[in-house]
Amino acid sequence: MAIAQHSPLLSITEDSGLADIIVDDIYDSGRTMKMWKKTTGNPRGMCLIDKRNSSWKNRWVEFPWERMNAERGPEENVVRMLQYIGEDVQREGLLETPERVVRSWYKLYGGYRQDPKDILKTFEDDSSDEMVVLKDIEFYSTCEHHILPFFGKAHIAYIPDGKVVGISKLARLLECFARRLQIQERICRQVTSILMKELRPLGAACLLEAQHFCMTSRGVEKQNSIMVTSSLEGVFKSEKGVKEEFLTIVRG
Asked: Is 155 known to be catalytic?
């Protein structure tokens, strides 16, 4: 009996012509099983393995063909992507590209290895009660929808209530969230939420202005479009004068 692991690169029709049983190693939405039944009329011709089964104590089952080691690591996935777009992966300029791409991920997605709580070292200061603003912070991130860059500048503010934080920590906090697969709106919310939770100020605000490659290099291709998003917490949201003061400082 021929058995094949199901691949999303092959249609059900193609798979059914190659094997008697298809092994789908993730049991999730049931979409593959439905397609199999519809195409072949055989409800039992599919072997499903639930990789998140509770009997495995919530461990993700790793099959031999998925293992990352010195010979087969994430670099191989980069090779496959290059082949998919039609490149010759053996030409000189691309020989070391997979390794360079993977090394770049340590910086581009370094936020996954950071805990924002470890960044926010606070200091007691009962005398500070005026707005603290750090503006024009450069940031770079990656859109989770197309894995393309977006970049721009951020403005972060808070009003202390007995505690302050080192001003550079605001930039580091932004970096922690930006260096992940993101959407711009979420970064704003994450920054203000962690400030409110850890610093407990009277209010916090974050405003981002950014250009998105998914807008400029593909899609509608509007080169000068700027996306502006914000998140306001506490008095920044409840008191109009506080919000206006923040926007006045940001706009200069």
From this structure: no
pTM (predicted TM-score): 0.71
Residue spans per domain, the chain = 1-67, 69-108, 122-251
Any catalytic annotation for residue 176? no
User: Which residue in 143, 176, 188, 206 is the catalytic one?
Assistant: 143
CATH architecture of 122-251: 2-Layer Sandwich (3.30)
CA atoms of 176 and 112, how far apart (whole Å)? 8
- Is 214 an active-site residue? yes
**Taking Cα atoms as reference points, which of 154, 135, 134, 168 lies closest to residue 208?**
154
* Catalytic position from the list 62, 144, 185, 244: 144
Out of 182, 184, 188, 190, the active site residue is 184
pLDDT single digits (tens) 179-231: 999 999 999 999 999 999 999 999 999 999 999 988 888 777 787 889 999 99
Q: Is 150 helix (H, G, I), strand (E, B) or coil?
A: strand
